[in-house]
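Lab notes, practical 5.
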Amino acid sequence: MNDFTAVLLDLGQKMWVEFVYIIPYLAFGVLLEAIIRTFKWHVKIRKALTHFGIYAIGLATILGVASPMCACATLPLVISLLLAGLPLAPAMALLVTSPLMSPAAYTLLSGQLGSHWANLVLVCAVLLGLFAGIVTHLLRPYGFNEEELFRQELPKGDFHDPEYPVDELRCDCGQQLSHRVDRCTHNKFLVFLARFWEGTLKIGRFALIGLVIEVIASSLIDPTWLMDLLSNEGMLATVGLMFATVPLHLPQVTAASMLYGFFLPDPGQVIPLAIGPGIAMLIGGPVTALPVMGIFYTMFRRRVLVLYLSLCIVGTLSLAAFFSLLQPF
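Output from the prediction step:
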């Protein structure tokens, strides 16, 4: 019993030390996201998407990397935009980029893995979004137009309406603390504080999950084996990690926290994370979120899910191969 208690205390201490280190980066990222949500800058860009034709692919990519929305929150938005007339190409670009980058994700990546990894993930997110949008646009005449996307016709109406008949799409954001504060006070500062609190809970939870998984994994698995796998520049390790992350729900913040914990770098130290495995974890893991694929399977025709997965997997592996080759230069 004493041994078990000692193990738990040791795990708790390791987790606490790692979590304290990331708190400043977490707070700064949540602060940026709270400002964006309070002034609804991402909503203003979103409303413009349906008016720019093929150029909406680039706009959707920018919105995806700047928006604080996660993949699960983005998919109902994407469906509502498709019903409002947005082509699938920019919708796919938005859906691919949203889970890969946000202000909080960038600051946490900078703090945990270094600014070079934060910048690399940002570039990969933009390239993957453009790739997904352009390929989807080229496939539009082959069964990917707006009239052939859904399994069945979705009822018209507002997803924010509590009476909207499709449970998977009905939005409950009206019950969020920030919306209640806004309805009661209309005070921007109080709304900002409420959004900051919501962001802290959401992003902190994902960071904590990553640290818990990492601490437990490091205790049960030989850390040398993990370090060798993540430091291996070969494509075999990259492909293996890519397909291992497909069935996992691995948000960006969780993936970054896990990798940080595996290497535990000193401040300013460059971690030996290889380009290929790093991209597989930080791009391939978040973009193939299991809840998103579940809604895809329920709402869309099968070929749309196949297209989404193909774009994510092929795009991630291509980025890993390209930047691995580019690294010596």
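Observations recorded by the TA: The radius of gyration is 20 Å. The CA atoms of residues 131 and 315 lie 7 Å apart.
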